[in-house]
Amino acid sequence: MWDPAQYLAFADHRARPFYELVGRVRASEPRRVVDVGCGPGSLTSSLSARWPSAVVEAFDSSPEMVEAARAAGVDARVDDVTTWEPLPDTDVVVSNAVLQWVVSHPSIVSRWVAALPSGAWLAFQVPGNYADASHRLIREVAGEGLAHVFRAEKPVLDPVEYADLLGDCAVADVWETTYVQRLSGPDPVLEWVSGTALRPVRAALSSTDWDAYVAELAPRLREAYPQRADGTTWFPFRRIFAVAQV
Question: pLDDT band at 6, cuts 50/70/90?
């Protein structure tokens, strides 16, 4: 279950990759713009502001996120990224930090590219920090007993692999950025991953087992990401971006 409030706790940090992604989409007057995995809808309104004449479509697989998006005034619905198909007038598809949850997403991306009209734009970004200490420690503390909750040890492709996937498009723009984020609080990295990477672990554990898991994970994260003298913590976060015009 997604917790919109926990996800929004780092809204500024999570918004920056979205704006940098959409900033590379050069569509002028798209007919339909789709926010795939809109979450709580906090960024969907910016798509309407940029393309005011477009129909903006938004969906998410989480009823909790959709409820939060609707409360924010976004006309969102519950839908499944694995079965969704773009309508013939879809000129822009944006997916922000969603596809890493779907093991089959490379084939889904290829399917969308084939279905989109000529000249349409597809833009997505995914986290690329699965080999970093944060995710490595999450898996280590989980152990073999919870190995099934992780979709894959490396659930995203490397940038060159995404470039190959999109290489036949008219535009294939793939890059990566590492944001060195300044977090605050006694366990800031734990708080960060609680809204995303730890979600499937939390769902698989009872309250008692979850408390024990967090009690073991928290000090390991503090050691891996030490607090500075001013009370803040540096958290490097790699993101992989891909923008294509079909």
Answer: very low
